Amino acid sequence: GLVPGARPRVVLRNVASDTRGKGRGRYPRTNKAVTCMAVTRVMISGAPASGKGTQCELLSENFGLTHISAGDLLRAEVASGTANGKKAKEFMDAGKLVPNEIVVTMVKDRLSQSDAQAGWLLDGYPRSKDQADALEEADIRPEVFLLLEVPEEMLVERVVGRRLDPETGKIYHLKYAPPESDEIAARLIQRSDDTEEKVVPRLETHNSNVAAILDSYKDVLVRINGNQAKDQVYADIESALKSLNVSA
Predict the structure, then answer these.
(1) Are 33 and 16 in contact (CB under 8 A)?
(2) pTM of the full predicted structure?
(3) Which end of the chain has fewer beta carbons closer than 10 Å to its terminal beta carbon, N or C?
(4) Could you tell me whether strands 171-173 and 162-164 are parallel, antiparallel, or unpaired per DSSP bridges?
(5) Are 121 and 66 a contacting pair, CB within 8 Å?
(6) How many beta carbons lie within 10 A of that of residue 27, not counting itself?
């Protein structure tokens, strides 16, 4: 086991060629190399349009971490009518915030499921000091907290330039990912949330949420420059995770 507070050691190996007994069943059989690490508890935070969703997909796929979004979890529990979901729905229907203990219970239950035992990536949660404290009390602590940083004017540009193709559901960007034809361009729409008036308050909320929890995770905080091509952002994250070594 790790010494409390010690930096986790990174273990790299090709899962497909792992024939040792303890490797069987713990990681999925695959034909491509997956990087399995002793870093198995990761939190990630990033503003709207920071590219966090893309990085979560890459991390989950390449490092064998189970991606857990508290928002998705909450919606899924409400939709499937679980005991926690029913409790949460009462608060949501009344226009109130779902209490920390309900969400923490959901997160804790999700982390205890078998697919999360080999490692988890908790996305966009906690969002307040109270939530961070509640996770701490539940013994849920990350080995690394990744913070994607992108200048606000760039985030606004990314959001305001987004367009949706109502026929295919595909998202385009007028500057960074323009439509393939004039025909597609003609039918693109801007979502009501993708305006400067709507995005600026969302960014302010995100900034205050991050400021509230950084103290809780300052010992494991890794800041990542998100204002780069997504492959470079991922390379920086991968490099940061691989550089975490057990300290003496």
Answers:
(1) yes
(2) 0.77
(3) N
(4) antiparallel
(5) yes
(6) 16
Q: Count CB atoms within 10 A of the CB of residue 4.
A: 6
| pLDDT tens track for 207-231 | 999 999 999 999 999 999 999 999 9
For residue 18, count CB atoms less than 10 angstroms from its CB and return exposed for 0-12, middle for 13-18, buried for 19 or more. middle
* 50 neighbors 150 (Cβ within 8 angstroms): yes
- Mean pLDDT of the region 65-85: 92
Listed residue (122, 140, 143) closest to 70, CA to CA: 122
Name the β-bridge partners of 83. none
What is the chain's mean pLDDT, rounded? 84
**Both tokens assigned to 20:** 């040792």
Q: Say how many Å lie between the first and final Cα of the chain, rounded.
A: 14
**pLDDT of amino acid 23:** 39
Kindly report the backbone phi and psi dihedral angles of residue 98, in degrees, each rounded to the nearest multiple of 5, phi listed first.
-70, 125
Buried b (16+ CB within 10 A) or exposed e, 110-141: bbeeeebebbbbbbbbbbbeebbebbeeeebe
Helix ranges, the chain (H): 52-63, 70-80, 83-93, 100-111, 129-137, 152-160, 182-187, 196-217, 230-242
State residue 35's pLDDT score.
Answer: 55
Asked if 54 and 148 touch (Cβ cutoff 8 Å), the reply is: no
Tracing tokens 């893309």 back to the chain, one arrives at 54
Type of residue found at 133 = D
Cis check: omega of the bond before 126, within 30 degrees of 0: yes
- The catalytic site residues sit at 52, 127, 162, 191, 202
